Amino acid sequence: MITPQNGKSKVNGENREIPLSPIHAASKWMPAPSSVEEAAALLGASITRVNDVHVYGTFAPPDGLHSSFSTVKPVPCSELYVRLSSLTNLLQSHLDKDKTATLEAAPSIIPLLHKLFHISSSLALTPILLHSSSSTIPAVNPLQSIAGTASSAKLKPRPQTSSSNHNSKSVNSNENAPPSSHSKNLQVPPVRITPPLCSQPIRYQWVRCLTLAHRLSPTHSLPSTNPHVLLAPYFQSASGHPRSAKSAGGARVAALAIMTSIFDDEILGAKYVRPLLPKVITLCHNGLRSSGSTDVVHRVHSVRCALSAIMAWRDAPSPIVTRNSNSPQKIFISERNRVEDKVLAECARLLKKASEDRYPEVRVAAADFASVLSSMLIIEEPRGRTSKKEYNVLVHSDEVMAICLRNLDDESVGVSVAWSEALARCICTAVEYHALSKKTQAETNMDGSSGNKNDFTAKLKAFQEARRAVGTIASQSCFTLESAITFLVQQFAKVGGEGAYKLGGSHSMGGRYAQVGISLAIIDLCKIQLQTGGIGSSTERECLDPSVALKTIMKMVESSIEEKEDASDLTMIQPSLSELDDSIFRDATSSPRNKQVANPTGVGGFLKNISGGIADASQKLPADGSLARLATARVLRCGLCETMSEAMQQTILRDLATLSIPNENKGGVPEFNRHQLQVAMVEISHLVTALGEASASCLDELIPAMQYCLSDSDHGVRHEAAVAFQAVAIVFPSAGRKYIMTMVGEVQVNQDEVLALGMKGGMPRAKTTATPRSQNRKNRRRQTQEKEDNFVSVNSTIGVSLNHQYAIHGNALVLSMILHVMPQLPGGLPAELLDIIIAVADNLVSCQGNANLMKHNPGALVTCVRAGYHIISGALTMGPKATVPHLQKVFGIWSRSATLIDEESNKLEPSQSVSCVEPFIASILVFLQKNSEMLLSVPDALHRTIQILEKLFPIILGYSQTERGDSKAFTSTRLDSAKAAIIEAFAWLPPGSFPTISSSVFSFASRQIQVETKRDVSCTLLNELLTNEDNILTSRASTRTEQWGQTGNTSVEENVVLLKSTCIRLSEREAVLHLAAGTTVKNRQDASVKAAAPTPLHEVGSWSVPPVPSRSSKERLMNSSIHIFAATFSALDGHQQTGAVKMLDELLESKMTSKGVNVCARNVAATLLSCLNALPTPEISNITSNDDVPAWITLAANSFVTILPIPDNHARRAAAEGLGLLSALTSASGTNKLQSLILRALERLMIIEVSDISAQQRPHTPTPTSSSAGCLLTLACMQRSFPVEFKKEDRNPSESPSRSLDEMKIKGTMPTMIMITRLLPYIATQEAEDDSHISRTYALYSFYLLLSYSKIIECDSVSLEERRQILAKAVEVVESNFYAAWTSNDTEIDIRSLEVRLSDCTHMMYQLM
Q: CA-CA distance, 614 to 607, in Å (whole number)?
């Protein structure tokens, strides 16, 4: 032990000055050198002292601090890093002054830096450990000293049972047992001197410095001018055996890194690559093959070295080839240097090997290598070749493109994006080659000596090449840009949707990954061609007309997609008119392509109801059509229209409009099918918004097309056409007001026609009689013919009625959408026009009481009612000023509808009633959301609203109970939307305004949480509930991204959303049309958090804004149920609260051994966290004033402790924050029993034992790593939830620091120092049996939070010696992790890219200090 005295320490019997901290070492003790020679001398001294143990000293902490706070100074490798940086900066500044300058001292720097090869290898073979802590090992359970041994109830983590080993021990088997081999010893492990070349930061500076030394070295001072001699040391180190002594110190990786840097230099690369290219490619390929399965860093550097070598070869000036001014311009084919055939063959083998690697970091490097290699894949036929066989110059291009195509559906989205770009560049090269060959052939044919014989020979050659190139891409499918896009479009349509086959790569996923990958390739291809002039009009080169490109891309959703979708899903069959009886078709607002099929085969029991509902909610919707439409729309937007000029965008806009209107040549129907029409309407919306007023010249073509689509039989076409009309109204407000009058007239005319047809009884109910088995075939055929004859007379009537219903629905959608945006537009909306609109909506809703229409055509009744309420919802979004004059009329409409729904005269079937109730409740919800202040300003508005909701709630409750008995009779999605809407309506009311029904609402929400959780429906509230400060823990590299917000790469995250999202119905979109407008994944989190209470009544208690409704009815129902559960939780008595939390605890327990444990953990954590956030101040005061902890709080803490080990990042964060909030409920007497319970539970959880588990069980099975990470974050959350303000009078200076910690415990403060002591072992950089990037990252981040929120470095109650030691320990922790956290010998790159998080956490610690 070395005790510091006035900055001096005794090391090996002699007094030496040691800096107080590495900060002083960097500034005072290591001043910046003034010259390159001085910097090199200082660097040489630092290199010799790296492995000298006499240089380092151990500083013991002051009395009262734990021995784990002892520090080693200087931090190993810190001086070396500073000296390397100084020398690098001096060399760079010398080069910046003159790019051609040389330095006489540069050659002597090269052998100096080479010394690190030997030093790194020796440190790897013979590790040097510097002991930073004393030999005194503290107690087994350090948190036990602050938790105490109270006899109160203990928090016991849920027993974790592995399905693969039922004999694994429970965490409750022995609470006070000593730590197992899986637990961290409290004593901080000794600090290990990291081999310099194993450290990524040091290796980076070393590579930069060595490259600059090579660059500045004069030629006459070098030992040789032969590149083979100069780079021989690097080739020798890079080709070493992976288990050799040199490789152990990171020499192989360092050698590859320096060669990569040399080839990246514009001077050195051109100088050295020409004689070394074949040798470098062979070396890199051998490096891929010789690496072990876990030596991923070496494989990444091998591919990058090959990439740099190819780039240097491509960009190096050619000493032979000179470009002729008359030769055609080459954009994608490299003109300078051609690569030898054997080198290209070796590159293809290297690429194939790298594409099969298990780590995405290697595969993405391979994709980048393919992108660079694409311009050099064209080979030349050898001169003097005598073989009569045709020579295929695209053989390597075909091979590389096949590799790219096979890996487009890679499991990593970042890798898939890289392969798509590589394929696009290879296609561009092949297209350019064919164009040049065609031009050359044309010039040859123009020669006088060429005749029919030459033409025949050319055709025969092309035929033979095509025969041999069957199955290839470059040789067969890339003759022109149009043929290349057509090939990709055909592949897109061929692979299918959700059931697509794998494309053939080692890590292919198939399914929607295949279609998304191919669509990315089309996007990149179109982008590149637009940037280089390949699409458009040019006189210098052959270009593809934008209109032709548009038609080719739209073939992605041609009729074959529709046929495949219908064939794969038996529930998506167009019914014949004879099948439109009362049990099949009802609601025209849903897609008419619905047919109820009893027990369809091949669908897995998936039943679709009469209005598009789902009988079995556990089954997913078939998303083939939706995926194809979305992918096609992305290609049009991102690949084609986004980078076009304004004139070209106008041309595309006119083409889309022309192709969307009826064509006489096709029998009076549009050229586009229903999928293409939806894509066209989506792109029209984008183009009108992007062009703005420049689209005015296209309105004459756009308006007829959109009006036609508003009456289309497909629901999606009508919806997208309405959105397009809204976009036009936003850009041209005056035209929008004009269209409103047109739409109002269309709605009235079509409603009159529907009512007239209903009076005629055009849709009689079908009557069928059972056919006895004994009846012969002739009689059965006769009866079937009679049944069909009965429908012949009404076929035309049905068709006409449906067409009018489509028109009503489409025009009502336009009205509601335009009304939604009209108040924000110049000119607004005249009051007289709004009066007319409300009257039209009243007429539509009044059809609900039309007995004749209810009897003969109930589907038309549903259509009219839903259209009327859509218009009312749109009018209510205009704000209080526009709504006040019509509010009494709206209340009258609501009261009349509520009465009609509840009356016995209502003959509608339950599914039809639900279809009417859902938009009814949605309109009330829009009123409460947009006009809450009118609850006070308008007399009796609040009372009437509550009265209507209390009348509707039993009806919804009855539908919900009947649904569980017979789910086939209901529209499940609309019923879920109705249930979510009424729950959200109650949530928007002031607290305590519905006391008579509050308990029923709570019970209903509790039941929905149980039911949906058992169906594995996950809530989406955690992103809003969790602290944004902790989002750093979710950051990942682009190759590891799994959801939105984890990386800054927008392209990758958009693809992740496309791949991970589920398909929803258009009725679900319309249900939240005016509730979630303008919200996206990016801004949804802040939409409800920052909003204030709308009225003074809402300020009572702890009312919070309900969450933004999700477009998925299942998620929306779960979110709203959790919110109202928390909002009404505080109104329950203690017994009811305990029962509610016990229900959640039992729900979690039932899911612990199933695959749905992550979903259940997120739902339970979100519910409990919402309840804690919603606790009113009086309730919190009541809890803190009692000595006994309420039973429900103990149960909640037990549930949070159970969730902590679950390997789900969001659930882990929620549990940690929940425990932090619970620990802040400190009693007034000063004995925080709950805090003691939590600390004891955390200590037991940190020594959890888990048996070996399989790879399939790992994502949902608790492990020591996930358990430790959750516990460490909990310690930080406890400190953050309970900020401590230290004062001088809190501590007597004469007392020992240990007494001060005891006083902190008694006064109810956080035991910060002991918690820091507990997490320090997890920040150590030494490898241990259970060491992991996860636990290390969470420990480092928790250390930052503890220091930041406790203010322990700034407070006066802690002595100056203690604060200095704590700060010195923090500096050591940051620097040691910076130098040693990333090494070239890491056995894995963590699957969650925690190296990114660790880097961010280290940066935060630097900012703190």
A: 6
Nearest residue to 1067 (alpha-carbon basis) of 866, 811, 865, 816: 866
Percentage of the chain exceeding pLDDT 70: 73
Structure tokens at 593: 């392509």
Q: Which residues contact 31 (CB under 8 A, 6 or more apart)?
A: none
- Sole residue written with tokens 């931090």: 75
Name residue 669's beta-bridge partners: 663
CA torsion sign, 820 to 982 to 1083 to 1095? positive
- Cα gap 1219→1204, rounded to integer Å: 10
Cβ count within 10 A of residue 984: 27
Cβ proximity of 1279 and 1343 under 8 Å: no
Query: What is the band of 1404 on the pLDDT scale with cuts at 50, 70, 90?
Result: low
Query: Could you tell me the sign of the dihedral formed by the alpha carbons of 85, 87, 88, 90, in that order?
Result: positive
From CA 545, how far away is CA 528, in angstroms rounded?
15
Q: In this structure, what token pair is assigned to residue 1230?
A: 């000063």
Please report the beta strands in 548-672, taking only residues with DSSP state E, as ranges in sequence order: 662-663, 669-670
Looking at residue 387, its pLDDT comes to 53
Asked whether residue 1287 carries a pLDDT value surpassing 70, the answer given is no
485 residue type, one letter: I
Q: Residues 264, 272: contact at Cβ < 8 Å? A: no
C-alpha 727/C-alpha 722 separation (Å) is 9
Q: Which residues pair with 8 in a beta bridge?
A: 5, 17
Q: What is the DSSP code string of 1047-1064? A: SS-HHHHHHHHHHHPPP-
List of residues 6+ apart from 289 with CB closer than 8 A: 353
d(CA 787, CA 789): 5
Stretch 1046-1058: mean pLDDT:
81
Three state DSSP letters for 415-474: HHHHHHHHHHHHHHHHHHHHHHHHHHHHHHHCCCCCCHHHHHHHHHHHHHHHHHCCCCCC
Q: Cα separation of 1170 and 1295, whole Å?
A: 43
334-383 tens-digit pLDDT: 777 788 889 999 999 999 999 999 999 999 999 999 999 999 988 876 65
Residue 1393 burial (C-beta neighbours within 10 Å; 0-12, 13-18, 19+): buried
Rg of the chain taking only CA atoms, in angstroms: 37
Helix ranges restricted to H, 580-645: 624-634
Where on the phi/psi map is residue 622: left (φ > 0), alpha (ψ -120 to 50), or beta? beta
Question: Computed from CA positions of residues 479, 480, 483, 488, in that sequence, does the dihedral angle turn out positive or negative?
Answer: positive
Q: At which residue do the structure tokens 């005072």 appear? A: 28
Other C-beta atoms closer than 10 Å to the C-beta of 793 total 10
Contact by Cβ (8 Å): 1114, 1019? no
For residue 81, which of 208, 190, 203, 259 has the smallest C-alpha distance? Answer: 203
Task: Report the pLDDT averaged over residues 1118-1127.
Answer: 95
Give the residue ranges of DSSP H helices in 698-732.
699-710, 715-731
DSSP string across 994-1015: -TTTHHHHHHHHHHHHHHHHHT
CB-CB contact of 763 with 857 (8 Å): yes
SS (H, E, C) 98-164: CCCCCCCCHHHHHHHHHHHHHHHHHHHHCCCEECCCCCCCCCCCCCHHHHCCCCCCCCCCCCCCECC
Q: At what angle do helices 546-554 and 646-659 cross, to 10 degrees?
A: 50
Interacting residues of 774 by C-beta distance below 8 A, sequence separation 6+: none
What DSSP assignment string belongs to 1362-1394?
HHHHHHHHHHHHHHHHHHHSSBTT-S---TT-H
452: number of Cβ within 10 Å? 7
Q: Which amino acid is at 543?
A: C
Residue 130 or residue 1112, greater confidence:
1112
